[in-house]
Amino acid sequence: MCFAEWIKFVCLVSMITAVSLVAGPWDAIANDGPRMTQLPRLVWLASEVPRWKKIEGRIDWPKTYVNPFDPAEVTVDVVVTAPDGKTFLQPAFWMEDFVWRSMGRSRGGEWFYPQGRPFWMVRLTPTLPGTYHVRARVKDRDGTAESSVATFRCQDAPGHGFLRVAKSDPRFFAFDDGTPFFAIGQNLAFIGSNSQYFTLRGAIEAFTRLADNGANFLRIWTCCDDWAMCIEGRKSAWGRSWSWRPSWVDRPEYVPQPDFRQVPPFAHLAVNKVIRLTPEAVRPDPSHRVAVQPNTSYVWSLAVWADRMTEIRSRILGKEVVFSLGADEIKRWVVKEATLTSADDAWWLGPVEISLGQTGGARPEVYLAGMSLRDAATDRELLWETEIDRPLLGRYNSVDCFMLDQLVTAAEEKGIYLQLCLLTRDLYMSRLRDPASEVYRAAIEDAKRTFRYAVARWGYSPTVAAWEYWNEIDPGLPTDRFYEELGQYLEEIDPYRHLRTTSTWGPSPKDCRHPRLDIAEVHYYLRPQDRQRIRDEVAAVLDRTAFLREHAPQKPVLIGEFGLADDQWREDAQMSQDTQLLHFHNSLWASLVSGGSGTVMFWWWDRLDRMNAYPHYLPLARFAEVIPFTRKPLQPGVWRDEAEGIRILGLVAEDCGYYWIVRDRGTWLSHLRGEPSPENASAKVHLRGLKPGHYQATWWDTWKGLKTAQVPVDIPADGREIQLETPAFTHDISVQIEKKP
């Protein structure tokens, strides 16, 4: 290196050092690329927030993008410096807000109407009291731009924090502050705006009933394709996933490729698929019923190509609209627009029809590339589902995202923790056959993009207990690379490090063991063909918990779906006959003391709601509160007392034990086999696992959640088993035995 080059090098190093000293701690995270002259502006919606609570900020940024959800086109993050000086990155997200009204099913159901213009938003949950310094950072193909520092203050406040694998006992859950957590709950998977049993309003009302009865955990699907809430998947006005026969055709070669990049409603039109218009009307049918506002102006647009002059007739908002194509609009793509005003009593869009007008001579060739209905005041699109050949990956359903916002907020208010099943399985499964292939790599990148958005929008919330990748993917697929790379990516971008899990349609030991899956999960339905091997619902819970513990001895484990089913996996027709919900009750109690990390998560949520199953959670929740999960080295045990015809399930440490006692004839399947119903009587039971000493036994009524009796218990120096006489009970009873101080 010559002397002149050495001087240049020293000057460059000095400049870099000076810039880094001036920039401050938020630039500890690398920032590549040229700087843009325009700067974003970060504005917090509050100046102070309690610890463990959400704070939101709006990021004003003037540029527009074809797909703001695509991080390859634009990424918006905030760089956060916490009060302890540590710096982390939190992704921001593109926000399309709505007004929501629950009209009731008789008036059309859930009404979601676009509110204002979209914008960039960030959500954070401060975990330390003090002042936070935050900058917004935008990166796109033109370079990088950063906002000035915007601060907020976190006030100290009580709270448990986020859900973790317990440090003291990794078989169970605990919060950041060490408080143990046992998951008590069920599935409430399909939530829809209109067509499902649970609308958004109904689901939130169920949250209240669950929480009032001690439940604290729900498994929610955000991957329902087009039959319920789905963040990424098919929501199309041109057909449904179960009968997918869309109206479009390949664009003829002599019809030029449309280019409407400068026309916002059609900026991302498909270029190779079009709809050929005929005198027979085309009738789009969105999966989300389209809300409108009374007495409001809308812009109705069609992107069309025709080979001769013609008329296009349309019907929308109850009005007839005719577009004429003149001589200067032939053989080129044009946008035809009209401004309409909705009726004074309009709340729903109603039918939409498009057809060719009557013409003499040969019928013209007319192709439709897109249609749009926009609020004239806000430019918000109402007919986003009519986009032809809309990509299924990489653009997120704004109404469904808004619905999930409401569910997360309701869960926060009620103290319910959510396992969000995020990815639409059928968009991935066929691409995961060869880990060395390009399509496999692309599937990983698609999943990363979706999870980046999920982390940005819902990752702030401590009530989001876990990300679940898929519902019931093929367990035979070579998914290890997928879980490894996606898990590593989440460790990089999720500052709150939510737990990760997945599920398969059959038992998957390799998934239970995978080091980047924090929770091992299995699904099981007790069907008639299984009942030769599995005696009843209690045995089914024990069998599946044993499988999980065999393959995941040092992880939290959950039976993520459970229930009685027929041999075609449908709801067992005899389930409704169980008016006491005995099978539900027994399954919950068996899972409490089986060594798992939560109750079985029942699948038939509509049946449970119709039969008001929620009060069954409360007695179990009260008993669970006295079990020292993570605080004592609890070990599960199961044994029979043949003379009494009972089974005993227990979680036992040397100085405490928590037992559930159930009669063999006290199960629902024993009733179906025609066995005599048990009598209300006491029983003499042998309880194991406690060391010698002086104890107190507290008996619990498992149906009322009440303590019924307390008796002293002495275990002699040479004893490891005690015999107790129970109070009178019919089906089951529980007992808490703890050493006296």
Q: Could you explain the architecture of this structure?
A:
The chain contains eleven helices and 40 strands. The chain has 741 residues and is an alpha+beta fold. Among the domains are: 3-159, Immunoglobulin-like; 249-386, Jelly Rolls, CATH 2.60.120. The strands form eleven sheets. Strands 2, 4, 5, 10, 11 and 12 form a six-stranded mixed sheet that branches. Helix 4 (438-458) packs parallel to helix 5 (480-493). The longest helix has 21 residues, at 3-23. The radius of gyration is 30 Å and the shape is elongated. Residues 1-30 have low confidence and may be disordered.
Please write out the topology.
Elements: H1 3-23, E1 41-44, E2 48-50, E3 55-60, E4 74-81, E5 87-91, E6 93-95, E7 98-102, E8 110-114, E9 119-124, E10 130-140, E11 143-146, E12 150-155, E13 163-165, E14 173-175, E15 180-181, E16 185-187, E17 191-192, E18 198-199, H2 200-212, E19 217-221, E20 249-250, E21 273-276, E22 297-306, E23 310-316, E24 319-325, E25 334-341, E26 353-356, E27 366-375, H3 398-414, E28 417-421, H4 438-458, E29 464-468, H5 480-493, E30 499-501, H6 509-513, E31 520-526, H7 537-551, E32 557-564, H8 582-592, H9 605-610, H10 617-626, E33 635-641, E34 646-653, E35 656-663, H11 668-672, E36 684-688, E37 693-701, E38 706-715, E39 721-725, E40 732-739
Parallel strand pairs: 2-12, 16-19, 17-18, 19-28, 28-29, 29-30, 31-32
Antiparallel strand pairs: 1-3, 3-9, 4-5, 4-10, 6-9, 7-8, 10-11, 10-12, 13-14, 14-15, 20-21, 21-27, 22-25, 22-27, 23-24, 23-26, 33-34, 34-35, 35-40, 36-39, 37-38, 37-40
Helix pairs in contact: 2-3, 4-5, 7-8
